[in-house]
Amino acid sequence: MGRVALVTGGTRGIGAAVCKALAAGGYTVAANYAGNDEAAAAFTAETGVPAFKWDVSDFSACKAGIAEVEAKLGPVEVLVNNAGITRDGMLHKMSPEQWHAVINTNLNSVFNMCRNVIEGMRERSFGRIVSISSINGQKGQMGQTNYSAAKAGEIGFSKALAQENARKGITVNVICPGYIGTEMVRAVPQDVLDKHVLPQIPLGRLGEPEEIARCVLFLVADEAGFITGSTITANGGQYLI
Ligand code: CAA
Fold first, then answer.
1. Which of 88, 151, 175 to mutate to test the pocket of ligand 1 (most atoms within 8 A of CB)?
2. Banded model confidence at residue 89, pLDDT cuts 50, 70, 90
3. Helices (H) and strands (E) in the chain, counts
4. pLDDT over 90 at 202, yes or no
5. Where are the chain's structural domains?
6. Which of these is catalytic: 27, 33, 147, 179?
7. pLDDT in the model for residue 76
8. Per-residue pLDDT tens digits for 101-135
9. What's the 196 CA to ligand 1 centre distance in angstroms?
10. Measured in whole angstroms, how far is the alpha carbon of residue 130 from the centre of its chain?
C-alpha cells in the first residue's frame, strides 16, 4: 500500500484529477467532498477512490473526518487542500455572506485540515502538504476580493507552516493554477471569459485539471523533500511572478 493521500474537494474538477493521478502513482487515496453526493458516487464508481463527506469549513467536522479516513486507510501522509468555492461580486455589491463563505471554505479550511494532520506528521517525521491557491491570489481579480484574499492567505500560511516544520520532514507548498477548464471557471460569464480572460493567456487556452495534478505529484514525491515554502505557478503565462 502506498502512502495515504487525502484530497479535499476531491471528487470533481482539479481535485478529481489530483486523486486519479495520485492513485495512478501508487498512493492510497481518500477524497473529501462537501455536498454533491451524486458526483461523489460517480467518482468512486469510476475510480475506486473512496469519498468522505464533510464540510472543510467546520473544524470539528475536519477532525472527525480525518479520524475516519485514518481508521480506514492509515495515517494521512499527504494532504492536498483543494476544496474551494467562488462567490464573485464587486465589493460594493458583496454581502457579508459572500465574504465569509469564501474565507471559511477556501482559507479557514486550510487551518482546519492542517491543524488536524500536523501533529501526526510531526510524530512520524514525514508529511507533504500542498494547497491549491490561484493566480487570483497572486495578481488580484476584480469581482473577487473575497477569493483573492483567501488565495493570497493560503500562500502566507504555507510559507509560515513550511518554516515551522522543515526540520520534521514535512514540506508545505502551494500551486497557483490559472484559469482551468472546470465548472468553476465555466461559471464565469462567457462574454467575460472571451473579452477579459482568454486574451490574457499567452497559451491561448484554458488549462486542463491534469496539468495541475502533475504539479501535485511532483511536490508530494518522497524525492521532493528539499522543496518547501514554494509556489508553483501553472497559468499558461497569464501572470509571471
Ligand atoms: N477584467 C476586466 N474587466 C472586467 C472583468 C475582468 N475580469 N470582468 C468584468 N469586467 C468588466 C465588464 O466587462 C464590465 O465592463 P463594461 O461596463 O464596460 O461592460 C464591468 O467590468 C462590470 O462588469 P459586469 O457588468 O459583469 O458587472 P457585475 O457587477 O454584474 O459583475 C463581476 C462583475 C462579478 C466581476 C463579473 O463580471 C464576473 O463574474 N467576472 C469574472 C470574475 C472572475 O474572473 N472570476 C474568476 C472565477 S474562476 C476562479 O476563480 C478560478 C481561479 O482560481 C482562476
1. 88
2. very high
3. 10, 7
4. yes
5. 4-234
6. 147
7. 98
8. 999 999 999 999 999 999 999 999 999 999 999 99
9. 8
10. 7
DSSP state of 40: H
Q: Distance from the CA of 12 to the center of ligand 1, in angstroms?
A: 24
Ligand 1: which residues within 6 Å by Cβ? 86, 88-90, 93, 134-136, 141-144, 147, 179, 184-185, 188-189, 192, 196
Residue 59 to residue 150: CA distance in whole angstroms: 17
Q: Let me know if 132 is exposed, middle or buried by CB neighbors in 10 A (0-12, 13-18, 19+).
A: buried
- CB 4, CB 28: distance < 8 Å: yes
- pLDDT of the residue at 157: 99
pLDDT band at residue 1, thresholds of 50, 70 and 90?
confident
Q: Which CATH number applies to 4-234?
A: 3.40.50.720
User: What is the C-alpha separation between 14 and 37, in angstroms, rounded?
Assistant: 17
